[in-house]
Amino acid sequence: MVLSDRDIKKALKEKRLVIKPTPDFDVQLGSCSIDLRLGNTFRVFDHSRYPYIDPAKKDYSNEITKVIKVDKGNSFIMQPGDFVLAVALENVKIPADLVGRLEGRSSLGRLGLVVHSTAPMFDPGWDGKPVLELGNLGRMAIKLTVGMRICAMSFEELTSPAEVPYTSKKFAKYKFQQGPEESRIHQEQS
């Protein structure tokens, strides 16, 4: 069952669900989701130095990317075909009996902006800043301003609390992340 606006407000008030800074309901609350805003940290790929990505190479992703910080109120320009990792301004803490789902905003999608490539689900027990997998599918550059509403997160109730919430998992690669961390696929167990 997807939480309605009423249920999201109740979960936040009861601190079952925690979003910091506290959302402005007048601007960010939808009928069944809460808009998250764009943070100031971006991880860009240095595609001119390397001919390909080797996901199995330890810490290789960190070698082929660099972090760019943008001051509040300033902008990041996404060129056509660009793919960057970005971070939401808000920190989201999801309880063991909910799952979060991140979706793009239609108004930005109509400009060619994709907010997540393959990872819209945030596990029960997630705690951290959601990382956005931004892609510009359009033919024109898109100006993204720090603090703008960039995506929406909805929440679904589980039939029972997860036995092992995300932050309790031994091999959770991105728990408590505060920035657009590089891929840690090399840490996966075979």
Count the beta strands: 13
Discrete helix count: 4
Choose one word for the global shape: globular
CATH homolog superfamily = Deoxyuridine triphosphatase (dUTPase)
Poorly predicted sequence stretches spanning 5 or more consecutive residues: none
**Which class of secondary structure composition applies to the elements?**
mainly beta
Strand content bin: 25-35%
Please name the CATH topology: Deoxyuridine 5'-Triphosphate Nucleotidohydrolase, Chain A
CATH class: Mainly Beta
Main β-sheet, in a few words? Answer: 8 strands, antiparallel
Head-to-tail CA distance between termini: 34 Å
Radius of gyration: 17 Å
